[in-house]
Amino acid sequence: MLRAKILFVGPSEAGKSVLANFVSESAEGAGGYVPTQGLRILELETPELGAGGGKGAGCRLELWDCGGDPKFESCWPALMKDAHGVVIVFNPDLRSHLKEIETWYSCFVQQQQLLDSQCLLVAHHKPGSAVESEGPALAAPLNKLKLIQSSLEEDPEDVRMEFMKYFKSIVNLLNESRDREEMSIIT
Ligand SMILES: Nc1nc2c(ncn2[C@@H]2O[C@H](COP(=O)(O)OP(=O)(O)OP(=O)(O)O)[C@@H](O)[C@H]2O)c(=O)[nH]1
Ligand SMILES: [Mg+2]
């Protein structure tokens, strides 16, 4: 079975743990805000995702929910290692977050030589904040990335669907690179 490692990163209190719980259907931590101490790993088995690639065995997704506090920076290299995808969660109402996510992108995507298509930006709206249809104006290079609006109160199923689309694209990439590896062994 394929295994994909997908990081959830971004500023503290943006909603990474809430979203990771939601997509993995974990009920953990329902209640008040508990800052993630370094790392939590959630698993998600998705029989429907592995298909497409013809191997049909499904895929095990590991969601690495990383603590956003800069005090965990010393752990980052270990977190980044061999990641297949990076989800950057931020609060679009906070100007400081728009700046901070440039750093997360630079460290976790650019410096790791991941493709832009392996990265997903999530403008997460906490309950009570308005969702603007255009979303926040992001500066280059972030404006090239896939950006989704997330509001678990207003449209949870849309959020789930966007995440599944993204996971599927990561699984496809993994399948392609595995096929290439197999070809290089045969030929
Ligand atoms: N009800 C509700 N509360 C939310 C939502 N998103 C965020 N919150 C609140 O915001 C708090 C912070 O969200 P977390 O997901 O814990 O933030 P985080 O990004 O994981 O923060 P760190 O672990 O410190 O990096 C939560 O404990 C909730 O109280 C949401 O969609 N619905
Ligand atoms: Mg957290």
TrEMBL record:
Single GO term (MF): GTP binding
InterPro entries tied to this protein: P-loop_NTPase
Alphabetized SUPFAM superfamilies for the sequence: P-loop containing nucleoside triphosphate hydrolases (SSF52540)
Pfam families for the chain: Roc
Presence of keyword Ion transport: no
GO cellular component, one term: intraciliary transport particle B
Record key words, sorted: GTP-binding, Nucleotide-binding
Nucleotide-binding is among the record's keywords: yes
Family: Belongs to the small GTPase superfamily. Rab family.
PANTHER family: DRAB5-RELATED (PTHR24073)
The protein, known as: Intraflagellar transport protein 22 homolog
Source organism: Crocodylus porosus (Saltwater crocodile)
Highest classification ranks of the organism: Eukaryota, Metazoa, Chordata, Craniata, Vertebrata
Gene: IFT22
